[in-house]
């Protein structure tokens, strides 16, 4: 038994900290999205570890087995569905595999790969987050008594948003191919949805559409690049 499993067994969830004793591994390339989950874990009593790609997630899983794993479907080194498929048949199996994406169409792919649940981004409502996990927990791992409903939304650190913009800018400044454009478009669309940045979200989705239908991406790419640079220059308050 490793240290995390020992911690899990010693902690008993309470009404105010219903996820106490759980360890979540979040496989998410967006620092902003991950910070939202970190804040919800903090309020719920859960421990959190983060991996920003498939390779990093597999390294984590060689060392310990989390109680819950939340996997973004679009990662820089491949599809989250591949990791879900691996974990769904692994022995011993991670108790709960949750997929997430800014694209609702990814749900069917995630469930077919073996995910126990799917949540569309943004994931920022504390009660929804807690209930999603508790609904899959055995009765003896759920808090006893009346649990206070906390419908508050969490607000991730704006610095994490700028980190995501810097990540996108690095990709856009290089020699981007079709695969890179697809990735950065979906990445920015997801981050923008969480941040409530409709302008960037629409532009990123247009870039993905342009790339997908084979039309010229020049105008869409230029617009997205300009918006990313604007946000790095702090011209927009998040």
TrEMBL record:
Pfam families xref list: Response_reg (PF00072)
Biological processes annotated in GO: phosphorelay signal transduction system
Record PTM 4-aspartylphosphate, positions in chain: 72
Keyword line: Phosphoprotein
CDD domains reported in the protein's UniProt record: REC
Top-level taxon of the source organism: Bacteria
Response regulatory domain mapped to chain residues: 23-136
Coiled-coil portions: none
Protein name (Swiss-Prot/TrEMBL): Response regulator receiver domain-containing protein
Organism: Puniceibacterium sediminis
